[in-house]
């Protein structure tokens, strides 16, 4: 058995969707106005985004995108920084990793 569906409540569905498509290659399955979107990854995950008045997650909550190399982690970090996101450089922790606050109110970890 594997986890293959996750729903995130977000404050801005379009911004969160655009972020996930642009930086992590998710594909748009469908949308319903500005309140709902279905995204797919290339491994069969279905990620739904639902608009909520306030998206409040615990400080340790995050979703992660494992990359094929440290170089790819560095590339995504640089691209996010160039595009104006507040990201610290990757560091060695449990992996080569960094975190970014995504539009819509959730945290993303990028790691190898």
TrEMBL record:
Residues 2-112 form the VOC domain. Coiled coil: none annotated. Pfam families: Glyoxalase. Transmembrane segments: none annotated. InterPro entries: Fosfomycin_Res_Enzymes, Glyas_Bleomycin-R_OHBP_Dase, Glyas_Fos-R_dOase_dom, VOC_core. It comes from the Bacteria. PANTHER family: LYASE, PUTATIVE-RELATED-RELATED, SLL5075 PROTEIN. This is VOC family protein.
């Amino acid at each position: 058995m594997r986890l293959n569906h996750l729903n995130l409540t977000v404050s801005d569905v379009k911004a969160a969707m655009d972020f996930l498509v642009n930086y992590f290659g998710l594909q748009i399955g469908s949308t319903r106005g500005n309140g709902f979107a279905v995204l797919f990854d290339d491994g069969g995950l279905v990620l739904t985004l639902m608009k909520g008045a306030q998206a409040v997650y615990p400080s340790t909550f995050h979703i992660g995108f494992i990359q094929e190399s440290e170089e790819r982690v560095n590339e995504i970090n640089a691209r996010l920084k160039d595009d104006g996101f507040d990201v610290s450089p990757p560091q060695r922790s449990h992996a080569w990793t960094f975190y970014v606050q995504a539009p819509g109110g959730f945290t993303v970890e990028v790691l190898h």
